[in-house]
Amino acid sequence: MLAQAVEHLIKDIVDFPDDVSVRSHENARGELLRVQVNPEDIGRVIGRSGRTANAIRTVAQAICDHKIRIDIMDVRQ
């Protein structure tokens, strides 16, 4: 559910919503969400000085009750 919420938030920000992919992974440090976006949208998702990315992380942390980490990358990786 958290991955779907983050995906919904990011799809509203980007120009290429079909290229957005959010995958959830569990590791020893908590949950990891890997967000992939089109290379042209990476600046939109991160935002100036990382403000948009931090806002997305804040909203995601407010939704869930455990520690999460969100990594944002483009689809080339």
Automatic annotation (TrEMBL):
NCBIfam families: PRK02821.1. One of its GO terms (molecular function) is RNA binding. Its main location: cytoplasm. Belongs to the KhpA RNA-binding protein family. One of its GO terms (cellular component) is cytoplasm. It is found in: Cytoplasm. Coiled coil: none annotated. A probable RNA-binding protein. InterPro entries: KH_dom-like_a/b (IPR015946), KH_sf_prok-type (IPR009019), KhpA (IPR020627). Keywords: Cytoplasm, RNA-binding. This is RNA-binding protein KhpA. HAMAP family: KhpA (MF_00088). The keyword Cytoplasm applies.
